[in-house]
């Protein structure tokens, strides 16, 4: 039986930055994100006993053998969860501008986990789907839910308490996220590699660990009270702190380009003039600007006037996993 699931990508306001277990994708800190309404992945899975290996197409193209094996290893986890023994045909379509450096792994693994469990004829709770998706890409654990989502790091060695939960559903606290593209280049240091190097070598990493828990507590309070200003101040502070840890890594690295800094400066300048907006940045040079639906248009216009800005994709708070058939 072929089953199709849709999952949206997310942007972290409190970053997941570091693993305590690389095989199970267990993080060193809890994180929090907004699910985005405009970027998503649709994935169909069909288990079939005529197949002698899993097959995977992305946007109608077969992927490289390395990528296929990665997906197949992930499907092994779904097989062990559901008791399914057959191989599967997986077709995935990304409605995420991946070329622009927007991560599609979160929506990708979340949609794959959901579709594969359904295709195996099994049922899973959202917590179980979050645990499965986490083992494809950490941030995918959060894309299972819509709205504002916390991924609780958990304490167990088997990872069974490391899953996401919803803090506030979509449609409750309207925020606007402008994804500002400054570069379409593939990132040089993937998040997996960047985290590992930072955890192992950066003397600033301890400072991150010592304070990220407090950032999370404070931002949850701000979100629940729909206090936009407080949420914005904390998310920008947390993003800068994450990026600061990479400067102390050995060898050191930085995800920003000069264009990234120009956008950051523009955000701070708009704020000084009373236009409220804040920025966050993931493991790449593009910037996400968080603002309110009321000021979104004006801020977008101002950002588009910067010569370093290639494009802007406006998003709002989006939904969790859905099934298409
Ligand atoms: O799950 P990954 O491997 O895509 O790592 C995500 C890392 C950050 O985007 C930098 C932070 C986050 O929480 O999404």
From TrEMBL:
- Give the Gene Ontology MF terms in alphabetical order: ATP binding; diphosphomevalonate decarboxylase activity
Report the EC number(s), separated by commas if there are several: 4.1.1.33
Which Gene3D superfamilies does this one have? 3.30.230.10, GHMP kinase, C-terminal domain
- Specify the Diphosphomevalonate decarboxylase-like N-terminal domain's residue ranges: 7-164
Key words of the record: ATP-binding, Lipid biosynthesis, Lipid metabolism, Lyase, Nucleotide-binding
GO BP = isopentenyl diphosphate biosynthetic process, mevalonate pathway
State whether keyword DNA-binding applies.
no
KW Heme (keyword) present: no
Where is it found, in Gene Ontology cellular component terms? cytosol
PANTHER family named among the record's database cross-references: DIPHOSPHOMEVALONATE DECARBOXYLASE (PTHR10977:SF3)
Q: What is this protein called?
A: diphosphomevalonate decarboxylase
